[in-house]
Design goal:
- By secondary structure, the protein is of the alpha+beta class.
- It is 52% helix and 10% strand.
- It is built from eleven helices and four strands, in the order αααααααααβββαβα.
- Strands 1-2-4-3 form a four-stranded mixed beta sheet.
- Helix 10 links the parallel strand 3 and strand 4.
- The longest helix is centred in the middle third of the chain and has 34 residues, at 101-134.
- The chain starts with 11 loop residues before the first helix and ends with a helix.
Amino acid sequence: MGDDKLPKIPSFEELGISEDEIEELEREIAEESAARREGGGEAGAAEGRPAGAPPAVGDRPAGARDAGAGAAAAKGPKGPRADAAARGKAKQAATGAPEDRASKRPKRESRRAKRAEKRASRKRAAADAAAAATHPPTTTPPPWGGLRGPATLLLLLVTAWLSSSYRTVPSPVAATAPDSVFSSARAMSHLARIASEARPPGSPNHARTRDYLIDRLGALGHTASVQTATSFDAEYGGAMTVATVRNILARIPGTEPGGPAVLVTAHYDSREIALGAADDGSGVVAILETVRALGARAPLRNDVIVLITDAEEIGLLGARAFVDEH
């Protein structure tokens, strides 16, 4: 039979099959071939063929052979891709299931969108790399030429040195200092006397300390009085505390009596086993030395009230009695 008598087989373009559809058909054929190779062993054994052997030509329907022949004739300049499409058409003819293009179109469009997104991502990465090569990033120079950290550290060290207690606390003054000068050495001589033993309220040393302070104030020219009162505290320590307190008071008149007065105060009692040199023997002897230094100077304008309270350590009882009753 001559070529002019063969039926004309339409091309893929005439059939409306695009290259993407051909690629889809190739993938489906490859998947089907893989599945056939996996399950071909059992089928081949049933038919007396070796496992994995391809089916014989005579086993296929006649329609499939005709469709295959037609696809082979349609193979033209498109090569293997067209051959794959023809095999897909032959498969459809053999199974009698027409191609459902509408159901496959969303998948194809999704794959196209993913490929387009990948191409755009590669283009953006290339553009960013080109921009980075053309305009290298500029680094901001550190402030103050990198000396900001060391300068801050130096400032903190200077501030700490200026605020140190070694600069704010005055140096000790000897007992040979002039009478008008406060002498820590003279104050220490009183502290050695009153802090030799513990002096809780009601103890013998507590009474001796009170008598010593009254005597020292009298020696400085000031008559001291004793405020005796019963004071209590309902909150200190969570229980009721009651004691008879004896506060020591003295008033140094100024040049303008009757006006506002200056109050200096400390407490002379201590805990049961504590010598109380710092709390608050140091405050008591500081008052004694201050009163002595003031007596060597011209009188002050305002009155000075000296208050040395009792029973501070068991609930501020002496201070309460002074505020409530004096």
